[in-house]
Amino acid sequence: MVDTYTSKVAVITGASRGIGYNVAKALVERGSKVVIGDLLDKEGEAAAKEFNDKAGKHVAAYLHTDVTKYNDLIALFALAEKTFGSVDIAILNAGIAGEGAGGLFTPLDDRADMFIHEVNVGGVVKGNKVAMLHMAKKGKGGVIINTASIAGFSAMPSIAAYCATKHAVVGWTRSLVNLHSIANIRVNAVCPYWCETDIIANPGNDVGRRFLEATPKTTMEYVVQAFLKCIEDSDLAGETLLVLPDGIHVQENYVPPESCFTPEFLEKVPELNEAGEKLAKEKLIQAVKAAKL
Ligand SMILES: NC(=O)c1ccc[n+]([C@@H]2O[C@H](COP(=O)([O-])OP(=O)(O)OC[C@H]3O[C@@H](n4cnc5c(N)ncnc54)[C@H](O)[C@@H]3O)[C@@H](O)[C@H]2O)c1
User: Fold this and answer.
1) Which stretches of the chain drop beneath a pLDDT of 50?
2) Pick the CATH number of 9-254 from 3.40.50.970, 3.40.50.720, 3.30.450.40, 3.40.1550.10
3) 199 lines ligand 1 (CB under 6 A)
4) Roughly what angle, to the nearest 10 degrees, separates helices 263-291 and 123-138?
5) What is the pLDDT of residue 273?
6) Is 96 near ligand 1, meaning CB less than 6 Å away?
7) Residue 98 pLDDT
8) Matching InterPro entries, A to Z (predicted)?
9) Which is it for the CA torsion 79, 147, 111, 41, positive or negative?
């Protein structure tokens, strides 16, 4: 029987509270080990202690981690490997909304405008690369899950910058579909609709508050189930799972129109795919060697 959880080690960012915390809890309840990386040390340490106390053994660890920094992410994944032996599941979930989420009418400030992109996109891109290198080094493959959002698909004028970051997470995740055949790593994204957590507690203005009060929401239970589905369903790679008020929906991928596929081009595609996969495998071996993780 395939062991989905009990011998598995998961790294989860942004899991001191909210969605990440609930996913970590579900994984520990199923027998996995978890290593949490977050900025909220008190809450993160309390979560790890709660999981360890409940299990009666060492199943969880916490490390202060800023997902915008490679050094922090490298230390987080190294802790997982040192403490529990490997990294099998990586969940890049840390994200922010708040003041920078709109972005359109704020001052013209290089640093302030890019901050939400550094956390929501940078944290995912950097986290995925560190996770991939760890998994490829061991040669066992693994599962990577990125937290995107319904804002990765819908246009949301009042939170345009947040929306852009989540569209980026969707595009990045879909583009990693080939890691499945290259390194047996499945990368998918969970895209929740509004869910009651701290990130939507302070919308910053009255219109936002009234919108959030009025809109239907999804449940934390559905959101957690979507993460578990990404882990359990071995067919899922490069997919985006919407978590809506009525449950989980696998979003169809975009298929370009017929004019993009001439017969001459289609004839070359299998050969190009094969060559691309060969090149990617070589580059991955070099990347693992160079990173020395
Ligand atoms: N709650 C929702 O309605 C909703 C909907 C769609 C997507 N999401 C996404 O879900 C993810 C989790 O959010 P949540 O709803 O649990 O909110 P939350 O605010 O409770 O959790 C976010 C966590 O990320 C951490 N974090 C923020 N910046 C960080 C950084 N630089 N480095 C490390 N950790 C950092 C926070 O400290 C916090 O623990 C986010 O990516 C969010 O965009 C949430």
Assistant:
1) none
2) 3.40.50.720
3) yes
4) 80
5) 96
6) yes
7) 87
8) NAD(P)-bd_dom_sf, SDR_fam
9) negative
